[in-house]
Write a structure and sequence with these properties.
The chain is an all-alpha fold. The protein has one domain. Helix content is 38%, strand content 0%. The protein contains five helices and no strands. It has helices at residues 18-21, 45-53, 69-75, 80-95, 97-104. Helix 4 crosses helix 5 (97-104). The longest helix is centred in the C-terminal third of the chain and has 16 residues, at 80-95. The protein is globular. The mean pLDDT is 91. It comes from Marispirochaeta aestuarii. This is DUF3795 domain-containing protein.
Amino acid sequence: MNPNRYAGCCGAYCKTCKPFLEGVCKGCKIGFDTGERDINKAKCKIKLCCFRDKGKDTCADCSELESCNIIGEWYSKNGYKYRKYKEAVYYIKKNGYEKFFEIADNWKNAYGKFQ
């Protein structure tokens, strides 16, 4: 199993999610990555672009991250979590998934601190 499936395309960390922990997750990649769920029925524009169309694990893997209107619009929404998800994607881009998961595995939410 690809451990990167626990990072949402947008930067959310899935392993802290209660539905995920209970095995009923309907999140970013679970089931879509195995074909159990039809990715074409997904409603999230970020997931469709990143995961379906470009075959990336997260937006951190995309060369168009800086100029992408889809993720840019989402990150510009009002709310703390959007800034934290953006921070996570840029952390992954700079430091890689392994370092991201070393930190994120200690979080209590879908986002957290990097220091």
